[in-house]
Specification:
Elements lengths: L25 E5 L5 E5 L33 H13 L11 E5 L7 H19 L1 H8 L7 H27 L2 E5 L2 E9 L2 E8 L3 E7 L2 H7 L1 E8 L5 E8 L1 H16 L6
Antiparallel strand pairs: 1-2, 3-4, 4-5, 5-6, 7-8, 8-9
Length: 263
């Protein structure tokens, strides 16, 4: 043997696997026969310490009890005050004024006024010709003339009151266009009234309709509005000059949606 050569080292026993470095679960308990009862995942060393979780932070902001009022120019304030004075029944905002007040055409009064005049004329004519009517019918014991006249005048008063109420209900159906919305006052009867308000931003379509020779010659018709989303349709009938009213309405809607001032 060469004296300069180093004798080989004896074989080393295999190093047992490190349970901390193994990725497989390692047994932590055994039964009497040496079989593992359960296993736990290996513990992994953490290179950096884990910082404790920070509690959530809450920011409390105070909200004003009353919203800030929008500044209104003197010119707009003057228009609003004039509209409130002219139409006290309308609920207008601080910067809202009436552009157009649409009234119903007088043609709609023809039916209630005509019926009232006809009924009153029949009653008065019957009272005046009461003796002739009784004689022609051969009534032996006719009612007293004073009593007949009293009942006839009461009936005439009832017809006149009914006709007045019909005219009043017709006239009090109104349609207003403002710089912010469309307001329709609907008078159903003397004790029944409701109001519909539609913002100009919600109006999708506005049109008018005229049917027949009479509406064309007398220049009246109906206005129709449709809104976005709920597809609600609003109608206002017997409108005088509906084409002009729709033109004013469409111009107001377009100016409002584009942010332009409305005169």
């Amino acid at each position: 043997m060469n004296p300069q050569q180093t004798p080989p080292l004896p074989p080393q026993p295999p190093t047992p696997p490190d349970p901390m470095a193994s990725s497989q679960p390692q047994p932590v308990a055994y039964d009497s026969e040496g079989r593992p009862l359960y296993a736990a995942p290996p513990q992994q060393q953490q290179s950096t310490p884990v910082e404790p979780a920070q509690p959530p932070q809450y920011v409390h902001m105070a909200r004003a009890t009353e919203p800030a009022k929008q500044e209104v120019s003197p010119e707009l304030k003057a228009k609003h005050d004039a509209a409130v004075k002219a139409f006290p029944s309308l609920n207008l905002s601080d910067s809202e004024f009436v552009i157009s007040a649409v009234r119903r055409h007088p043609i709609g009064l023809l039916l209630p006024v005509g019926i009232t005049i006809f009924l009153v004329a029949v009653v008065l004519s019957s009272l005046i010709n009461y003796p002739l009517i009784v004689a022609s019918m051969g009534v032996l014991n006719p009612p007293d003339v004073a009593l007949v006249w009293t009942l006839g005048l009461l009936l005439t008063a009832l017809f006149l009151i009914g006709g007045y109420i019909a005219v009043w209900v017709y006239v009090n159906n109104k349609f207003f266009l403002t710089n912010e919305s469309v307001i329709q006052e609907i008078q159903v009867s003397i004790f029944s009234k409701h109001e519909q308000t539609v913002s100009l931003s919600n109006i999708e379509d506005a049109s008018f309709q005229q049917h027949g020779i009479l509406q064309t010659l007398l220049n009246y018709g109906s206005i129709r509005l449709s809104t976005e989303g709920d597809e609600t349709t609003y109608r206002f009938q017997y409108v005088a000059n509906p084409k002009e009213q729709i033109a004013i309405l469409n111009n107001a809607v377009e100016a409002f949606k584009n942010g332009r001032p409305i005169d």
